[in-house]
Automatic annotation (TrEMBL):
In the C-terminal section; belongs to the transposase 35 family. In the N-terminal section; belongs to the transposase 2 family. Residues 176-287 form the Probable transposase IS891/IS1136/IS1341 domain. GO terms for molecular function: DNA binding; metal ion binding. Residues 1-49 form the Transposase putative helix-turn-helix domain. This is Putative transposase. GO terms for biological process: DNA recombination; transposition.
Length: 413
């Protein structure tokens, strides 16, 4: 049995009084975070030693509640304030680990101040706050009330924490983190697949199956353009401008929800039908700064490969990334010859060995071969450890996806 940590997100519908209480909690958590960040920055500028986590909590929460300027911190749950400081401490640790080289990947910037104008506001309740899912399906939050929840599925076990999120489209979500030992390993299958991600085709499989690029943002571009034009005509600071901003945010949220829902269905189908999945480690951040940036962001390769990775861990499959400098496109999958670089408009080419290669299919075959070779060389074992809880486990918006039938060669549920 494996210990698995999962995140389940549901839409919640607080009433007017609960929205006010949530706004107050968002504000208090933001103030505590900013106060803690300010104290540490002032200590650094003054040449003083780093303020410990315990001392910081005492100064910005316990002692601050006794002052006239911060007396209103008593009106929200203390756990919300403590978790805000926990986020600050985590941000500092990630920054220090990045600076010292202990943290791999891109460099992490130091913590920044939170703003009430941020598109996303969130607070977190842990078990210490005694939040509870009631028998009538409502979520009881301390000093907030009983909030209605739209349950799209059951929680597999008791939640260890819940995060209440307000997004840019003025929607509220409850994100539960649960820990379970349920064994969800899928029965083994023989097939393995290499995937070449692209723009003309979202994915080309080594077995010849292709997935047409849905281009959700491109399809919604006409509506988004009209909404942006309406927004530009509104006077700054007016109620009409605020309503126009909300319409734009909701349109973008619908695009993101539809893309995420489609990617979940496709990634689940791929993991279910293949014992091992190999993809190329694309430099998405770099491609996002080229003339193809809009198409790259619309494709959502990073989120899709992340879904493949954690679902492979969850269901006992193998997932591996092939080095981004591997010449998967230029290498002939028949003879192994590496040819000259080809422009993007060349979709097929002839190898001197006499074979005719499709650009994307040839790359997918090479990715599969390279992934299998690297996997065998490392003698890796399929023994997934603790599965992380991704930020958005699934889309639960009732109108998330209506027209997503753009898959060719793959049966997606």
């Amino acid at each position: 049995m494996r210990i698995v940590q999962l995140r389940y997100r549901y839409r919640v519908y607080p009433d007017a009084a609960q929205r006010t209480a949530l706004a107050q909690a968002f504000g208090c958590a933001r103030v505590v975070f900013n106060d803690g960040l300010r104290l540490r920055q002032q200590a650094r500028e003054a040449g003083e030693k780093y303020i410990s986590d315990g001392d910081l909590s005492k100064r910005v929460i316990t002692q601050a509640k006794d002052t006239e300027e911060r007396a209103w911190l008593c009106e929200v749950s203390a756990v919300v304030l403590q978790q805000a400081l926990a986020d600050l401490n985590t941000a500092y640790r990630n920054y220090f680990a990045s600076v010292t080289g202990k943290r791999k990947g891109r460099k992490v910037a130091p913590p920044r101040y939170r703003s009430r104008k941020d598109n996303r506001q969130a607070i977190r309740f842990t078990r210490n706050s005694r939040f509870k899912v009631l028998d009538n399906g409502r979520l009881r939050l301390p000093k907030i009330g009983d909030v209605p929840v739209r349950w799209s599925r059951d929680l597999p076990s008791e939640a260890t924490s819940v995060t209440v999120i307000k997004d840019a489209a003025d929607r509220y979500f409850a994100s539960f983190v649960v820990t379970t030992t349920e064994n969800e390993t899928l029965p083994p299958v023989e097939s393995e697949v290499g995937i070449d991600l692209g723009l003309m085709h979202f994915a080309v499989m080594s077995d010849g199956a292709t997935v047409t690029a849905p281009k959700f943002l491109r399809r919604a571009a006409r509506k988004l353009k009209r909404l942006q034009q309406d927004l530009s005509r509104k006077e700054k600071g007016s109620n009409r401008r605020r309503k126009a901003v909300m319409k734009v945010a909701r349109a973008h949220a619908r695009v993101a929800d539809t893309r995420r829902d489609w990617q979940h269905k496709l990634s689940t189908a791929i993991i279910r039908d293949n014992q091992a999945v190999y993809v190329e480690d694309l430099a998405v951040a770099g491609l996002g700064r080229t003339r193809l940036a809009k198409s790259v962001h619309d494709a959502g390769w990073a989120s899709f490969t992340t879904m493949l990775q954690y679902k492979a861990q969850r269901y006992g499959r193998t997932f591996a990334r092939v080095d981004r400098y591997f010449p998967s496109t230029r290498m002939c999958s028949d003879c192994g010859r590496i040819n000259e670089k080809m422009p993007l408009d060349v979709r097929a080419w002839h190898c001197p060995c006499g074979s005719h290669q499709d650009r994307d299919l040839n790359a997918a075959i090479n990715i599969k071969a390279a992934g299998q070779a690297d996997f065998n060389d490392r003698r890796a074992q399929v023994r997934p450890g603790l599965v992380p809880a991704p930020r958005s486990e699934a889309v639960t918006h009732q109108n998330a996806a209506r027209a997503t039938r753009s898959v060719a060669g793959i049966a997606v549920p």
